[in-house]
Specification:
This protein is α+β, with helices and mostly antiparallel strands. It is built from 11 helices and 15 strands.
Length: 303
Amino acid sequence: MEVVWNDTPRARWERLTAEAAWQQHWGYGGACARLGSKLLRAEVREGSETVALAQFTHRAFFGRLHVAACTRGPVWTCEAEPGLRVEVYRKLRKTMPLRWPNGVFFTPDAAADGALAGAGLRRVMSPYSTAALDLGAEDAALLGRMDGKWRNRLRAAERSGVRVRRLSERPEAWEWLLAAEQAQRRAKRYAALPVQIVPAWQMASGKAGSVRTYVAELAGEIVAAMLFLVHGKGALYHIGWSSDAGRRANAKNLLLWKAARKLRGMGVSTLDLGGLSTDDGPGIARFKLGTGAGVRRLCGTWY
């Protein structure tokens, strides 16, 4: 088995990660680099076959401790049996081109406890879950999967006169939403990726449609907004905002429904609605699951 570092062409990487999580896409790495992180991209080969790709972001702390993190990866490009996966994790750690001391962390996109433990790693952060909405169905099937109350709110929003439209892709059209998100974070005291990741992603992606923003309007006023990051065959619901009027009108239900259908028309097959926390955000979790999204339980972070 061979690990080749930082030698995979972008076109090949993007082809092999078309269905991967956002954090393993080439443009995500480029966006993180624009915000100060360094990148390491690994291609793991068994003979002439590529078995996995893994993108790491890394930083140096105190000038000497190098920490690399592979989030929602590696991306498996074949049906790798458990023993092969164990060897991949071992090789990635052993060949990591960082000076000692260093720390290598994995937060895989799927259950991988056995392979990680078999490679000598141990869990250092608890598992979490995310909601994934499968868009590979017609409208009737998608509506049928919804929770009844969620669907009723959608219909109520339609009757209330809420209208949905897409904003321009130019940053000046959606920068106000980034400011609203920062205000939300301060008010509700939660942390997330810096909002500057959005323009950085758009520039690093270099593709039209990589940032899609939809707004809901009522009586000519914007009452809700959603911003999505499109990557390969997937999209991530990254930022959402609603005014009191928007909440009363159930605007976000209609907004997400309309946006999901538009994204499906672009070729998006999976919409990642983000993490679920019934303790910290039960209302948000109910909203996401009410769409009919499936729960994807990840296995935590391992070192």
